[in-house]
Design goal:
Elements: E1 2-3, H1 14-17, E2 24-25, E3 28-29, H2 30-40, E4 45-50, H3 54-61, E5 70-75, H4 81-93, E6 98-102, E7 105-107, H5 113-124, E8 128-133, E9 145-147, E10 150-152, E11 160-167, H6 184-192, E12 196-200, E13 205-207, H7 211-224
Parallel strand pairs: 1-4, 1-6, 4-5, 8-12
Antiparallel strand pairs: 2-3, 6-11, 7-13, 8-11, 9-10
Length: 225
């Protein structure tokens, strides 16, 4: 699942007329980078949620045929936050562990890792698995640590949650479909029960949350072509 429902307030005025996932870096839309990487990793079914200017996302991506994917859309009348958006899309996602990635990041994480993660989650009866990255300048305090392969609020160093995770439907059983809900409280409850795994990604990762970071990433990618 690619999360693409956010309004992108910090990206205005660009997002007044274009949904954030369709903003381009390196000659292609942010979300297109994800779709290409997912296809290369062997995925065939993708769910995308949307709210703000969602029709533009559907028009741009269609059914996903150009990437060899089948895209289903989870439409939200208003953005439901991360957990709310995932809970609303559960009928499209099923009970087995599923990969979720924020639509407004750029990264070189190997999405194929999700298969190994899913197997580890089944074996250890985990509900969540989060990928952490080094803290960017705009988020120096981090979010979580890792202790013996488990997500932790106590372990140091604290690193930043990348917006990439693998989850089971049961993590969201307390969320009413159609209602807004944040992900962090659900992760903290899973941590308390010892049912959240984690790993560190040392590669490239950018939270494309501002016009300045969008322009910087665009310049970097174009210089590498």
């Amino acid at each position: 699942m690619i999360l693409a429902a956010g309004r992108g307030e910090r990206m205005r005025p660009l997002t007044d007329t274009c949904p954030k996932p369709l903003l381009e870096v390196g000659g292609r839309a942010l979300i297109a980078w994800h779709l290409a990487a997912l296809a290369a990793a062997g995925f065939r079914e993708v769910v995308i949620n949307h709210a703000h200017l969602g029709a533009m996302i559907e028009q741009a991506l269609g059914g996903g045929e150009r990437w060899g994917l089948s895209i289903a859309y989870s439409r939200e009348a208003r953005a439901l936050e991360t957990a709310g958006g995932i809970a609303n899309a559960l009928p499209l996602l099923g009970e087995d562990p599923f990969l979720v990635v924020n639509g407004d990041i750029w990264c070189d994480f190997d999405f194929g890792r999700a298969r190994t993660i899913a197997a580890q989650m089944r074996a250890a009866r985990l509900l969540a698995w989060c990928v952490l990255v080094d803290n960017p300048a705009h988020h120096p305090g981090g979010d979580f640590g890792i202790e013996r392969g488990r997500l932790s609020e106590e372990a140091r160093p604290l690193r930043t949650f990348s917006g990439i995770g693998v989850y089971r439907a049961r993590l969201f059983e307390e969320v009413t479909p159609g209602q807004s809900a944040a992900l962090a409280p659900l992760l903290r409850r899973a941590i308390a029960r010892g049912r959240a795994g984690a790993e560190y990604h040392a590669g490239r990762w950018v939270d494309v949350g501002t016009v300045e970071r969008l322009a910087e990433l665009d310049a970097q990618l174009r210089s590498e072509v």
